[in-house]
Design goal:
- Chain A: Its EC number is 4.2.1.20.
- Chain A: Tetramer of two alpha and two beta chains.
- Chain A: Its cofactor is pyridoxal 5'-phosphate.
- Chain A: It catalyses: (1S,2R)-1-C-(indol-3-yl)glycerol 3-phosphate + L-serine = D-glyceraldehyde 3-phosphate + L-tryptophan + H2O.
- The complex is a heterodimer of chains A (about 425) and B (about 260).
- By secondary structure, chain A is α/β, with parallel strands linked by helices.
- Chain A has two domains: about 160 residues, Rossmann fold (3-Layer(aba) Sandwich), CATH 3.40.50; about 220 residues, Rossmann fold.
- Chain A contains 17 helices and 14 strands.
- In chain A, strands 3-4-14-9-10-13 form a six-stranded mixed β-sheet, sandwiched between helices. Chain A has a four-stranded parallel β-sheet with strand order 7-6-5-8, with helices on both faces. In chain A, strands 1-2 form a two-stranded antiparallel ribbon.
- In chain A, helix 6 packs parallel to helix 8 and helix 10 crosses helix 12.
- An eight-stranded parallel beta barrel of chain B has the order 1-2-3-4-5-6-7-8, surrounded by eight helices.
- Chain B has about 260 residues and is an alpha/beta fold.
- Chain B starts with a helix and ends with a helix.
- Chain B contains eleven helices and eight strands.
- Classes of the chains: A alpha/beta (about 425), B alpha/beta (about 260).
- At the A-B interface, helix 9 and strand 11 of A face helix 3 and helix 5 of B.
Chain lengths: ~425, ~260
């Protein structure tokens, strides 16, 4: 079954025109070694059992599928269900992938893990995995992101990881990936690069998708138990693409299920300040960071600056698998602006008592825009990839909350004194 | 004349050849030109000019920042190609273009090779174009008589080493250690053995780059490598000692060929 999924996705690391492994020659043995180990675990039922048991014991799986009664009643249209990846240990879906890669590291005999992180969720998840499994961890994070998401930096450090702010390039996620690749090129003997999303050189897109497929495996079972059918639509946010692939993969061969990915529309299409590769049709096929996909780039092929209120979606490329699925029209891609996301956030928190991450709120914003077109008998699932505690600074600022501002100012003053 | 013939002729005169590197536009074109003049005056044998890229994953911190600095000034690929054209017509030295695959990909791989040929470039070096992903690039370059330099490392197994030798042309760029450009390489026996093995197994000209710091390293490579490549160290010498410091640095390296 698992093999069938991978075969459907791609051949030899390619998904249509996208994918590959465009890495410096020094990294070829490292990606080969990893690919070989990944191909082995794909055929190893025991490995999968061990992996899923770890997710149950340590991360809290299966995560619930919550009926969004308040939102469903508010719109009076389709029934909305929420896949609660926010209830994973560490507060996001990132832990699914990282625990899988941790077990793979043990198999490979590696003792040090490196990772890149945007919003910090993958960094925290990696630091947790390293602490639990006894690995040394180094996390690369764009200096700008480290500033925006210091709470996560704090936790990574407490967990014993070394956090390296990256000041090169645009000082965001793509630059953190570059630094991690450079580190890996120098240390692959004992070091594994736990890439956090379904991007990068082969086998990362497939491997991350494989480890995140637990989301849609559970989702399929749960929704069929509750509603007696597959969902009519699934919404997931789309940065690199790991939670979207996780939510979609088990339904790829179910033509009745519409799959919708929502990118970061930032300040809007015309502003040029966004991270929408597909929905705004601004990206071109290119080769960077070890793989071929749709990148936001200029005519020369230089990668462009991206923008989103959400650090986790602020990425210049996109999973080659999703680039292919969008091209073949299996996945429909929208973009939600920062302003739409803030409005959606206010609605979710007030109607459901849930605090979604700004990343996940993009998926809700996409749904809210389209919900008028649905019927009451329709069933929709939104993948809530993470919880919003980490975003308190951005949300407090976006909502212009005076009490929060006063608190931050007073705290700042207290430290300055 | 194809670069292989030029190298063969130059090798008859010297124990080891020297290839130097510049990032085009860093710190500016005028400075690049003075440095290239200094290369020429000191008998440098081949010159590698790097077209900056926003995400240079094979480069260390020194070059990464320089790439970025050039792009922040708004310098375009066309500006770099014009500069290379001018240099190639001014100095009778083989020039090679080093850049990342996306620069070729956006330009059009074949169009880029054609343009390089037109402006007098002898070859290209593209570190993120592994042989199994960028066949068109290697094949078309070969067809056009332009060197597409392939890269080998001590971790390339014999089968892959042979494939690297077969697909590339001009010479093999041998990266003697793990990591990226910039930090020092210690040229111990193990590394020298690896170079020798690569030379013997492929029968090709071997250029060694990454981490060469000065005359002593170049001297160590005599008898094993055909070409020594110096990149980051040159930028460092320029930044700390200026053009006169570079002149002296290259003069010291040139003497390596004269020593008994």
């Amino acid at each position: 079954m698992k093999n069938k999924m991978i075969n459907y996705l791609g051949q030899n690391g390619y998904f249509g025109a996208y994918g590959g492994r465009f890495v410096p020659e020094i990294l070829i043995p490292a990606v080969d070694e990893l690919n070989q180990a990944f191909q082995e675990i794909l055929r190893d039922e025991d490995f999968y059992k061990q992996y899923y048991n770890l997710l149950m014991d340590f991360s809290g799986r299966p995560t619930p599928l919550t009926y969004a009664e308040g939102l469903s009643a508010y719109f009076g249209k389709a029934k909305i269900y929420i896949k609660r990846e926010d209830l994973n240990h560490s507060g996001a879906h990132k832990i699914n992938n990282v625990l899988g890669q941790g077990l793979l590291m043990k198999k490979l005999g590696k003792t040090r893990v490196i990772a890149e992180t945007g919003a910090g969720q993958h960094g925290v998840a990696t630091a947790i995995m390293a602490a639990k499994m006894g690995f040394q961890a180094t996390i690369y994070m764009g200096a700008e992101d480290a500033e925006r998401q210091y709470a996560n930096v704090f936790w990574m450090k407490q967990l014993g990881a070394e956090v390296i702010p990256v000041t090169t390039g645009t000082a965001t996620l793509k630059d953190a990936i570059n630094e991690a690749l450079r580190d890996w090129a120098g240390n692959f003997d004992n070091t594994h690069y736990a890439l956090g999303t379904a991007c990068g050189p082969r086998p990362f897109p497939e491997m991350v998708t494989f480890f995140q497929s637990v989301i849609s495996k559970e989702m399929k079972k749960q929704i069929n138990e509750i509603c007696g059918k597959n969902p009519d639509r699934i919404y997931a946010c789309l940065g690199g693409g790991s939670n979207a692939m996780g939510a979609f993969v088990e339904f790829l061969q179910e033509p009745g299920v519409e799959l919708v990915a929502v990118e970061a529309g930032g300040k809007g299409e015309a502003s040029g300040k966004h991270a929408s590769r597909i929905a705004y049709a601004k990206a071109k096929t290119g080769v960077s960071q070890g793989y071929k996909t749709l990148f936001l780039q200029d005519d020369d092929g230089q990668m462009l600056d991206t923008w989103s209120i959400s650090a986790g979606l602020d990425y210049v490329g996109v999973s080659p698998i999703l680039a292919h699925l969008a091209e073949t029209k299996r996945v429909r891609v929208l973009a939600a602006t920062d302003a739409e996301v803030i409005e959606a956030f206010k609605l979710i928190i007030s109607k459901e008592g849930l605090i979604p991450a700004l990343e996940s709120t993009h998926a809700f914003a996409g749904l809210f825009r389209e919900i008028a077109d649905t019927k009451p008998e329709d069933v929709i699932v939104v993948n809530m990839s993470g919880r919003g505690d980490k975003d308190i600074f951005n949300i407090g600022e976006a909502l212009q909350d005076q009490g929060w501002k006063t608190f931050v100012t007073e705290r700042g003053k207290a430290y300055a004194d | 004349m194809r670069i292989e013939k030029q190298i063969e002729a130059m090798r008859k005169e010297k124990k080891i050849l020297l290839m130097t590197h510049q990032i085009i536009g860093y710190p500016d074109f005028a400075a690049n030109e003075k440095v290239i003049e200094c290369f020429y005056n000191n008998g440098v044998d081949l010159i590698e000019l790097q077209i900056p890229f926003s995400d240079p994953i094979a480069d260390g911190p020194v070059f990464t920042k320089s790439n970025q600095a050039v792009l922040e000034k708004g310098i375009k690929v066309s500006d770099c190609l014009k500069f290379i054209e001018r240099m190639a017509s001014k100095y009778p030295i083989p020039f090679l273009v080093m850049t990342y695959y996306n620069i070729l990909y956006q330009y059009g791989v074949e169009a880029f090779i054609d343009r390089c040929k037109e402006i007098g470039v002898q070859g290209t070096i593209v570190p993120d174009a592994p042989l199994d992903e960028a066949r068109t690039y290697y094949d078309y370059s070969c067809q056009q008589g332009l060197a597409a330099v392939s890269i080998a490392t001590p971790y390339s197994d014999p089968k892959r080493l042979q494939e690297i030798a077969d697909i590339g042309s001009g010479f093999i760029y041998y990266v003697p250690r793990k990591g990226v450009t910039g930090s020092k390489t210690t040229f111990g026996f193990e590394i020298l053995d690896g170079i020798q093995k690569a030379k013997k197994e492929t029968g090709k000209t071997i250029a060694v780059g990454f981490g060469i710091q000065g005359p002593e390293d170049v001297a160590r490579l005599i008898g094993t490598a055909d070409i020594a490549i110096i990149g980051s160290k040159i930028q460092q010498v320029l930044e700390t000692e200026g053009l006169s410091g570079l002149d002296q640095f290259l003069g010291d390296i040139a003497r390596v060929n004269k020593e008994e």
